[in-house]
Amino acid sequence: MSELVQLGSVNGHLAKPTGNGPFPAVIVIQEWWGLDAQTESIADRFAQEGYLAFAPDLYHGELAQLGDGDTAMKLVQKYAPNAHLDLESLLTRSRLTPIAMERSAVWASVLADACHSPSV
C-alpha cells in the first residue's frame, strides 16, 4: 500500500509493506527529474520486500520530464541548496538508510556520513 504523506515538513511517497510492523525502513532519494513514477515504483518494490519506504519530494511538487535535462538542471539549482535540510530532518529523527538513484547518490553519501548511517 502506498500514499502521499507528510513526514514532519517533508511531503513524499510512503510505501508500506503488508502485515504488522515494526518494519525496517529506507529513504528512496529521487533522480534529478524529481519524484516521478519510477522513484515511486522503487519505493513500492521495497515495500513488497518488507521495508517501509519513503521517497521524499525534494522539488515540492515540481517535476522534469524524463530526458529534459534543462528543466532538471533548473530544478536542481532551485532546490539542491536546501534539499539537504529536508533529508537531514528525516535522518536525524530516525534510523533510516538513504537509497539513491544515479546522481542523487552524492546526496545519500553526504547525508549518511553526516548522520552516521550506511548508504546504499
Summarize the structure.
The chain has about 120 residues and is an alpha/beta fold.
Helix-strand blueprint:
Blueprint: E1 2-7, E2 10-15, E3 25-29, H1 37-48, E4 52-56, H2 69-92, E5 97-100, H3 105-115
Parallel strand pairs: 3-4, 3-5
Antiparallel strand pairs: 1-2, 2-4
Helix pairs in contact: 2-3
Order of helices and strands: EEEHEHEH
Record the strand order, biggest sheet.
Answer: 1-2-4-3-5
Q: Give the terminus-to-terminus CA distance.
A: 23 Å
Tell me the number of strands. 5
What integer value in Å does the Rg equal? Answer: 13 Å
Largest sheet: 5 strands, mixed
Structural class: alpha/beta
% residues in beta strands: 15-25%
Low-confidence stretches: none
Instruction: Give the mean pLDDT.
Output: 81
Shape: globular
Could you explain the architecture of this structure?
With 120 residues, the chain is an alpha/beta fold. Helix content is 39%, strand content 22%. The protein contains three helices and five strands, in the order E-E-E-H-E-H-E-H. It has a five-stranded mixed sheet. Strand 3, helix 1 and strand 4 form a beta-alpha-beta unit. Helix 2 packs parallel to helix 3. The chain is globular. The model has no long low-confidence stretch (mean pLDDT 81).
Descriptive tags:
3 helices, 120 residues, 5 strands, alpha/beta
